[in-house]
Design brief:
single chain, 514 residues, Herpes Virus-1, Rossmann fold, 7-stranded mixed sheet, 18 helices, 23 strands
Length: 514
């Protein structure tokens, strides 16, 4: 397996070589922090979407879908607070000329202190083995206690600076902690300043301020302004949810780490409308349900954790992130927020339209509270690649790179190979391929040795390869090869569809959420 330090580089190279992700506009030297999904990438991306949509909409009777427009009335973004408050605190290093988010620099420093604690605990486990009492160790070890106290004090100061929008103290923290630029090693920083992340453009033929609109920085507002349309037309009763998958745009000045942070990205969001006073119950429920969705992909519980926000957004009374252990460490993958009634109240205020829900059981009207789950599709894509990318040394001394993607997410479900290009084998292979392609994304290959063809399919994550040989012509059996074990079995050709269907079904992943 690749070391964490260079895993991201290997994934980037692999993504390009095997048609998953390309730099956008590459023949014109590319466009910073914008990427295109290739032939295998778009299939993987679509399968992640399908898994999310099935778990969110298909498996819930009280959640329905929506596809709102990217362009929306500009007053929506004034009401939501994005025009005035959608900012990042940025800081530049004067020597490297590189720009960073000040809050991320501090978070990364705190994460390093947390890592020291975990390293100390790991040493204790190794030293005391079966007699190790982790809770007692954490409560008594001097090094752990010292670092835990340091984290607590840093978090308190950090939280206050964020709540007060104290840019001066954010810079002072960076200086006090002696945080250096990762590129230059220099501690020569500029002042911290706020930067609004929204892209604006003009609607119509005349360019003036009156027709300025924005590319949406999130998909949630399209749900909020349509919630009564959906509720009334669908005869929905609180609690109910509205799910949406769509593009969002943020003018990220600090955009790096491949597809982790991009200027054009895709979100999978669900807004769940609940009775006021019940939001925390639903917040806890959705935290667990969303974590289980990730765990059902099989990437290991140790690679996920919750990270509660020190300073929830202006609209939230509780917020947490599901973080995933990316090649660059634990980073945000999905956000779960209790948004209160902030958004609907603001849209009622700015639009002058009543946005209340009449509850027949309570015989009264009220503005529902909202619990949100917001997942980055591109980040999920990167998480899948990161967990699936595997370098293996085989018994014969050779090596292979295999993407152990969960079969239900695999871009290609089955590859069909004639062993040779003669004796009717290609024709028979095509016949089998034609019987499978109605149900699965398939691939047909007859070029190169069978070993090289297997390696190519391993590299894109194809769960099964079917080989047609002379025996097929005699008794109708084929060889089926499993990607992960490389085990080969002889089966009747008419059973291929059933075997593949069982292997690539998402039923098990969905049923684990029940």
């Amino acid at each position: 397996m690749a070391d964490k330090s260079d895993l991201l580089k290997k994934i980037i190279a692999h993504s390009k070589e095997y048609g998953f992700v390309f730099p956008s506009s590459e023949i014109y030297d590319g466009l910073s922090a914008v990427y295109d999904y290739g032939q295998n990438g778009v299939e993987l991306k679509n399968n992640i979407k399908e898994y999310w949509w099935a778990s969110m909409v298909q498996m819930h009777e009280n959640i329905v879908g929506l596809d709102a427009a990217i362009f929306m009335h500009p007053t929506i973004w004034k009401a939501s607070g994005h025009v005035d408050a959608f900012n990042d605190p940025l800081i530049d290093n004067k020597d490297s000329k590189k720009r960073y988010r000040a809050d991320v620099l501090i978070e990364d420093y705190i994460a390093k202190v947390e890592a020291k604690i975990e390293k100390e605990v790991a040493k204790g486990k190794k030293k005391f083995e079966d007699s190790f009492d982790e809770e007692q160790f954490r409560n008594t070890n001097p090094n752990v206690l010292r670092n835990a106290d340091k984290i607590e004090k840093l978090n308190a100061r950090f939280k206050k600076a964020l709540e007060d929008s104290d840019l001066v103290d954010l810079k002072k923290m960076i200086e006090d902690l002696e945080i250096a630029c990762p590129v230059s090693g220099s501690k020569n920083w500029t002042e911290v300043r706020q930067f609004n992340l929204m892209f604006d453009t003009k609607l119509g033929s005349v360019s003036d301020d009156s027709n300025t609109i924005y590319l949406r920085p999130e998909t949630a507002q399209g749900i909020f302004v349509n919630y009564l349309n959906v509720q009334k037309s669908g005869r929905m009763k609180v609690p109910f949810g509205i799910a949406q998958i769509g593009k969002a745009f943020r003018n990220e000045i600090v955009a790096r780490q491949f597809i982790f942070r991009m200027r054009e990205f895709e979100q999978m969001e669900m807004q769940f409308f609940v009775k006021p006073g019940t939001q925390m119950e639903w917040y806890e429920k959705w935290k667990q349900e969303r974590l289980q969705w990730h765990l059902n992909m099989g990437f290991g519980e140790e690679n996920y954790r919750f990270h509660d926000h020190l300073k929830p957004a202006h609209y939230a009374d509780a917020a947490t992130d599901i973080e995933y252990n990316f090649p660059m460490g634990f980073k945000e993958l999905e956000g779960i927020h209790s948004r209160t009634d902030f958004d609907l109240k603001k849209h009622e205020e700015f639009s002058g339209k009543k946005l209340q829900y009449f509850d027949p059981e309570e015989d009264k009207s009220y503005i529902p509270y909202v619990v949100e789950t917001s997942l980055g599709l591109d980040r999920t894509f990167l998480a899948v690649l990161s967990s699936s990318y595997t370098e293996e040394k085989l018994e014969d001394g050779s090596e292979r790179v295999v993407l152990k993607v969960p079969p239900f997410l695999a871009p290609t479900k089955v590859a069909v190979f004639p062993l040779t290009k003669k004796d009717g084998l290609p024709e028979k292979a095509r016949e089998i391929m034609d019987s499978l392609k109605y149900d699965f994304i398939c691939r047909y290959e007859e070029k190169d040795t069978i070993g090289k063809r297997y390696r190519r399919q391993d590299a894109i994550g194809t769960p099964y390869c079917i080989t047609i040989d002379q025996q097929t012509m005699e008794d109708g059996t084929v060889t089926i090869r499993d990607r992960d074990s490389m085990k080969q079995d002889r089966i009747a050709s008419e059973k291929v569809g059933d075997i593949v269907a069982e292997k690539v079904s998402m039923r098990k992943a969905l049923s684990n959420n029940d």
